[in-house]
Amino acid sequence: AKNNEEACGCVRIFGPQLEQIQSLSLSPREIVGSLSCITFDGDPQEYLVVGTALLDVDPEPRQGRILLYAAGTESGSTRFDLVSLLQVDGAIYQLLPFQ
What we know:
Layout lengths: L7 E7 L5 E9 L1 E11 L2 E12 L8 E12 L2 E13 L10
Antiparallel strand pairs: 1-2, 3-4, 4-5, 5-6
């Protein structure tokens, strides 16, 4: 980042015409390591799962988060709302489906 500004990652959601419909802000010095769309048995709701890494001075991130966003609609547009988060040791490089 320039002029001692901290980098801040985000997840940008684009519509079918490649227009940006939402931007999900992350914490300062947090970057996305993996993304996945999932559903759970018995729950018709679709979710976006974001795995992140919190950057620091070490070459390998020591902390990360798993963010769970629920997909919904608002005024005819798809929206994602944060429904859960989990702080973890280390970066999240891959998210795999499970039941």
